[in-house]
Amino acid sequence: MPPLLRLLAPLAAILESLLALLYYRWRRLASALTAARCAEAGSHVYLGRGTNVTGHSHIHIRGRFVAMERNRIAAIESHGGMHFTPTLVLGDDVSMENDCHIAAANRVEIHDRVLIASRVYVSDHSHGGAAAVDLALPPNSRPLTSRGPVVIEAEVWLGEGVCVLPGVRIGRSSIIGANSVVTRDIPPRSVAVGAPARVIRTLD
């Protein structure tokens, strides 16, 4: 390495650290402003780059919440001329990695200390049903329907690529394996995998 570059290397490292700190401070400020628009704002909220929140007045953040990059968190107030009064509850110490989508047109509850890996999808609704009148329409033109709320109890771990579908309750301290599709209730302290997800083990 040329002598000049050797001299500049420590300065570049310091500058890189300062820029990282400034970026983190900016994200904290932007996150706090977003949280302040919600029905409840948590004690510590961090929303990474590209994370989008909609339907703020129906979202309750009840403690520390961290969502990394490119996440979508949506309480859906209207679609196709229909209007909804959704509730989306995020408990304390909920962590979400990248590229997740959480959507509520009815009610979604994610309780305390839940860990959500990347590319996870949680929704309490779908675009229409299987009736001929629905299938005659393009998917995005079909009315939103909900089979019931989604409840993810405390200390659940959702692995990479998990889908949690409407009307499902996942019991406390359960683990859902990567790429599983949860279509029915999962008892507490269970390990469930597959599409549809099935319990393969009960934790002691």
TrEMBL record:
<keyword id="KW-0677">Repeat</keyword>
<dbReference type="GO" id="GO:0016746">
    <property type="term" value="F:acyltransferase activity"/>
</dbReference>
<dbReference type="InterPro" id="IPR011004">
    <property type="entry name" value="Trimer_LpxA-like_sf"/>
</dbReference>
<keyword id="KW-0808">Transferase</keyword>
<protein>
    <submittedName>
        <fullName>Acyltransferase</fullName>
    </submittedName>
</protein>
<dbReference type="InterPro" id="IPR018357">
    <property type="entry name" value="Hexapep_transf_CS"/>
</dbReference>
<dbReference type="Pfam" id="PF00132">
    <property type="entry name" value="Hexapep"/>
</dbReference>
<keyword id="KW-0012">Acyltransferase</keyword>
<dbReference type="InterPro" id="IPR051159">
    <property type="entry name" value="Hexapeptide_acetyltransf"/>
</dbReference>
<dbReference type="InterPro" id="IPR001451">
    <property type="entry name" value="Hexapep"/>
</dbReference>
